[in-house]
Amino acid sequence: MQKIMLMALIYLIFCGMVATARGSELNCLVEAIYYEARSEPVIAQLSVANVVLQRVKDDRFPDTICGVVHQGIYRRGQPVRHQCMFSYWCDGKPERMKEIHALKKSISVAEMAISGVSVEATLGATHYHATYVNPHWRHAENFMELGQVGKHIFYLDMRYK
Q1: pLDDT tens, 8-63?
Q2: How close are the terminal C-alpha atoms of the chain, in Å?
Q3: CA max distance for the chain
Q4: Cα–Cα distances in angstroms (integers) from residue 72 to residues 16, 58, 66, 108, 152, in the given order
Q5: What is the pLDDT of residues 99-139, one digit of tens each?
């Protein structure tokens, strides 16, 4: 019973953030952290959040957090499966944050990132991928590997630095 009440309280707090523009942007960052790195240590989650925020600052990407994390190809208003910048957004699975501890951690990390906390080892990174995938773009001359944090490898796009 206590777990259900805690879950309901966190859900209400999380949904209540949608009321403001900043809250909506925070929700999108929380979502990205949760689905991209929820099982990772804080430093790895913060690295993922930093990539999202770096993209917001970069003219090649949308200028909002929600725009960045939901960027992809759409048909009839729906994301095309496997055609998004962040794989969770168009993997065909519903976005339901059920792990309360992971959600709380994602909220804390998102707030830290928005407040300016960053991971020096991944500064400037606009790309990353999980260690278990091998995307075609990683071999392009313009991408410099910055290193691995947790289960993700981070890259700097040298064309724009």
Answers
A1: 445 445 544 433 435 689 999 999 999 999 999 999 999 999 999 999 999 999 99
A2: 53
A3: 55
A4: 27, 16, 12, 27, 21
A5: 899 999 999 999 999 999 999 999 999 999 999 999 888 99
Question: What would the two tokens of residue 87 be?
Answer: 């794989």
Task: Write the CA distances from 95 to 30, 31, 115, 155, integer angstroms.
Answer: 12, 8, 25, 27
Indicate the DSSP class of residue 124. T
Number of residues assigned to the chain: 161
Question: Which H/E stretch holds residue 107?
Answer: helix 100-114
Residue of 160, 150, 141 whose CA lies nearest to 121 = 150
